[in-house]
Amino acid sequence: MKIIGYVQGMNDICSPMVILLENEADAFWCFERAMRRLRENFRCSTTSIGVQSQLGTLSQVIKTVDPQLHKHLEDLDGGEYLFAFRMLMVLFRREFSFLDALYLWEVMWAMEYNPNIFWSYEQPDGASDSNYGQLNQKMLKQYGKFQRKNLETGYADKNNALAVFLVASVLETKNKQILKEAKGLDDVVSILGDITGNLDAKKACQEALKLQNKYLKKAKRP
């Protein structure tokens, strides 16, 4: 198993568990399991950041579902979508209210569930759902709705996460403002900064699932 030490931002993942669970051991166990799932988000080096692959997927999603917005962001030198770094790294703990962030986590992890999830925690590099052809309908029903859709359409890449489409849905809500007002990346960051605590989690999830369907219909299967 890959080991990673403390990285700034992990406190955002830990704090809900400390608040919700009175027993310290239970809180630690939940945090440790959450970090097995999220550790790649925090793995950074001098040449890469932990969520870089997800940012690349986000770029492809926006390019596919909203080419005009993607081109505008590229023109602002924001084609790598680094302004969305925090949203993905700590799963919207800063952008949504505390209760909405918890709602999002529960929805994301339920919809991305697959029967091999605990095995994949132990074998992160080897875990794969690439054997879709061997899955029957009974087995597919064990998967969460989001992951099942990815499997059925051949997009089971681990970077094709619901969180990516949630970020895309946030960008889409600010589409007109970004196109009209953003003259540089600082403007994009400022516009997105204004949403903090003012987003509706249920609406964001609904829009994210719509974007997933739109993307899967338009994107070419790898």
Describe this structure in words.
With 222 residues, the chain is mostly helical. 60% of the residues lie in helices and 0% in strands. The protein contains 13 helices and no strands. It has helices at residues 10-20, 24-38, 52-65, 67-75, 85-89, 98-111, 117-122, 137-140, 145-153, 162-173, 175-181, 185-193, 201-218. Helix 1 packs antiparallel against helix 2 (24-38), helix 3 packs across helix 4 and helix 3 (52-65) packs across helix 10. The longest helix has 18 residues, at 201-218. It is globular and about 50 Å long. The model is unreliable at 124-128 (pLDDT under 50).
Class from secondary-structure proportions: mainly alpha
Taking the sheet with the most strands, its summary is: none
* Contiguous helical run count: 13
Task: Estimate the helix proportion, in percent.
Answer: 55-70%
What is the overall silhouette?
globular
Strand content: under 5%
Number of strands: 0
Please, what is the average pLDDT? Answer: 82
Helices and strands, in order, run as HHHHHHHHHHHHH
- Write down the Rg: 18 Å
Distance N terminus to C terminus?
29 Å
Give start-end ranges of low-pLDDT stretches. 124-128
InterPro entries: Rab-GAP-TBC_dom (IPR000195), Rab-GAP_TBC_sf (IPR035969)
Pfam families: RabGAP-TBC
GO molecular function: GTPase activator activity
Domain Rab-GAP TBC: 1-112
